[in-house]
Amino acid sequence: MSKPKIAFLAAPTDVAQQSLAALSSRYGSVPIEAADVIVSLGGDGFTLHTLHGMLHWKKPVFGLNLGTYGFLCNEYSENDLIDRIVLSHSVVLHPLEMESHSHDGSVKKAFAFNEVSMLRQTRQAAKLRISVDGIERLAELNGDGVLVSTAAGSTGYNLSVHGPIIPVGTPLLALTPISPFRPRRWRGALLPSKSIIHVDVQDYDKRPVSAVADFTEVRDVKSVSIKKVFEISLTLLFDPKRNLAEKVIQEQFLE
């Protein structure tokens, strides 16, 4: 890559806005449509927001961490940014598509790069029926909910509810229960990434459930279908020694 044209995007925090001013002055900034690469300034949440914003523009994203953990970002530094971008390793991400059907008959589609989750809305446990590729696999899951995670999202919410870490590039999705009450011993499943997962909400009028695709939440759903969309691809850029694949491997050896 020759010297890339950069568009900087920054979270609304003071530190991100100060960094935006400093980096724009040092390296120059162009509009998104003219950029070769997007540099996001913030934490993991803002990098995820930036990825969703690139669904239209299809620009690669190089995140600089100004948040807490920075799993989707690179270490923040104002030095050698051009060289870091030129030498970066790319990871291609395909989002999940969530199609939700609600009580009122409305249908909503949304994308998720991390996970799609279904969660109980009240004190009462959700009752869910789970099918994969048209075959019923679990007649009733009674608990707080269930989620479907990509490899990129497997070290986040999925891991916190004891789901498996999926190495980047592995053609798998994680189907993970959230605080299951029945069946107690079911800990989820690893499914081929081309699977279509369908979840029906039982007793939905008495036990309401919401569905969340990254930042998009739909309340009072009756059913949700989830699949990976291979026709859509976005690129995240990482410093070679701390690329996403290496970060996922390291997560498996943390105490």
Description:
By secondary structure, this protein is of the alpha+beta class. It has two domains: 6-93 and 233-251, Rossmann fold; 96-228, Sandwich (Tumour Suppressor Smad4), CATH 2.60.200. The protein has helices spanning 14-27, 44-57, 81-86, 157-160, 244-251; strands at residues 6-10, 37-42, 61-65, 89-93, 96-102, 107-112, 115-120, 126-132, 135-149, 172-182, 189-192, 197-202, 209-213, 216-218, 221-228, 234-238. Strands 5, 6, 7, 8, 9, 10, 11, 12, 13, 14 and 15 form an eleven-stranded antiparallel beta sheet that branches. Strands 1-2-3-16-4 form a five-stranded mixed beta sheet, with helices on both faces. The longest helix is centred in the first third of the chain and has 14 residues, at 14-27. It is elongated, with a radius of gyration of 20 Å.
